[in-house]
Amino acid sequence: MTQVSHPQSTEDSPRPTPNIFVGIDVGASRTKVAILDYEKNLIGHAVKKPGTDFSNSAEACLSASLKMAHSSKRDIVSAVSTGYGRKNVSFTKETKTEIGCHAMGCYLNFPIAITIIDIGGQDNKIIKLNEEGRRISFKMNRKCAAGTGAFLEEISARLDIPLEKMDRLAGQSENMVKLGSFCTVFSATEVLENIRKGKKIPDIVKGVFFSVIRRVLEMDSLTENVVMTGGVVAHNRNLVKMTEEIIKREVLVPKHPQLTGAIGAALYAMEDSL
After folding, report:
1. Hey, what domains does the chain have and what are their CATH numbers?
2. Taking a C-beta distance cutoff of 8 angstroms, is the pair 24, 92 a contact?
3. Strands 94-95 and 135-141: what pairing?
4. Which of 34, 69, 80, 250 can pair with 262 through a Cys bridge, CB separation 3.0 to 4.6 Å?
5. What is the pTM of this model?
């Protein structure tokens, strides 16, 4: 698994930045904000649960990001929103598609031909870009929660295990339990059945991770260079490791995998202002 540090983060610097570009990615499970300077450095960012008010979560994320960037609203040159709740952001006039923003954000980190696997809270995306960063194709899974962050949340609730501990448990597995069902409801039932049979929790959790990966990989074929992004990837690095084992090659991961959509939106904001 390869990580990159670009875009550079200068969030520890106290120097104010007078001209900034803001990207807001309002997803179904998390709101993300990224602030870039003119050199495309990531100087501020925040992630929050949206709750029932997308507008308030966007404002809260913006406030936290501006504080990190030592900036204020008057320093914003342009702002673009994307994601499920992009039209609920009061301080942006421009919106862009999730596909376009994720592609833009990933290509900044990896300016080569890539296949992007984005595992989000409610959907998965596979986006293919050529060497120039142009989108060749994309596929999304929105019909079923299986293979998404919502699926992992459901399983963690059934197991009564905090979501943040799932990754560590998967790494402790010695004999993975494979799940036969793709459906969230049936998979949850299958998990409980394996517990009844005395299977070890780490082996079951790794089986759940394997089910997520298998579901995503069946959506489309992959090109040589594969990039994984999304909040699920950010918090469950064993998913990346297992994917590498399955596809038998290294997977690229940006430094901030949960922020690629927001970073892409900020890049669009910069592009639109020039």
Report:
1. 2-100+259-273 (3.30.420.40), 149-213 (3.30.420.40)
2. yes
3. unpaired
4. 34
5. 0.90
CA angle 84, 90, 92 (to 5 degrees): 80
pLDDT tens sequence across 93-145 = 899 999 999 999 999 999 999 999 999 888 899 999 999 999 999 999 866 66
Which tokens hold the place of 256? 């901030």
Residue-averaged pLDDT of the chain: 90
Quote the distance between the C-alpha of residue 29 and its chain's center: 11
Q: What is the largest CA-CA distance in the chain?
A: 62
What pLDDT score does 6 carry?
54
CB 175 within 8 Å of CB 163: no
- Residue 212's nearest CA partner among 79, 118, 109, 93 is 118
Report how far apart the first and last C-alpha atoms of the chain are (Å, whole number).
35
For residue 246 the two structure tokens come to 């399955």
Q: Which of 45-59, 114-128, 174-188, 206-220 has the lowest mean pLDDT?
A: 174-188
How confident is the model over 44-68, as pLDDT tens digits? 999 999 888 999 999 999 999 999 9
